[in-house]
Amino acid sequence: MHSFAKISAAVLLAAAAAAVAPAFAAPVTYAVDTTHTFPRFSYSHFGYSTQLSRFDKATGTVVFDAAAKTGSVDIVIDAKSVNTGYATFNEHIQGEDFLDTAKHPTATFKSTRVVFAGDKPASVEGNLTIKGVTKPVTLTLTSFQAMPHPMMKKEALGANAHTVIKRSDFKAGKFAPYVGDEVRIDIAIEAISQ
User: How far is the C-alpha of 158 from the C-alpha of 186, rounded, in Å?
Assistant: First the structure.
């Protein structure tokens, strides 16, 4: 009986461990969906209007662990893909006074911490590098969704986030304050599990 009790206890313990195991899921790595991820930026143009532009190419990875409430974000933006809606102005923004894409063809964001509110991320703290200058920023999430993708049949996630920077902090402050020094960055991001 004694060995039967040990075996029964071992079986019960193994069954309990198996039942709990899904709660301790491993982190999932997601690749940025380049067809649904576009960093945008907006700024005051002499006070006449708020100009809206975007970058057409962004790549990267997101790591997310819902159970552990942890994650990371690593984004690379092709600065040469800037799209203002006007080709001449695209070239102007890529010049030395602004993005200087000849020397700095990419901008990057690398997270240092993901802050959760309940079960969902509420903000992502990290380092933004533009024109070779790195500054800490906090992206505030206005939406977040993690669920199976209905068409790709893989786990996916998406979010909308924003922050405000001063372009003069990144050696890109020409014409400030007439052309606004404060730039709002918005990013719509979707990513698919690998």
Answer: 13
CA angle 48/54/58 to nearest 5° reads: 160
CATH number of 25-193: 2.40.128.110
Give pLDDT tens digits for 161-175: 999 999 999 999 999
Which positions ≥6 away from 60 have C-beta within 8 Å?
Answer: 31, 32, 73, 74, 75, 76
Give the residue carrying structure tokens 């698919």. 192
Q: Write down the domain spans for the chain.
A: 25-193
Q: Which pTM was predicted? A: 0.85
Read out DSSP for 15-59? HHHHHHGGGGPPPEEEEE-TTS-EEEEEEEETTTEEEEEEES-EE
The DSSP 8-state label assigned to residue 117 in this structure reads E
Name the DSSP letter for residue 171: T
Tallying the residues shown for the chain, one arrives at: 194
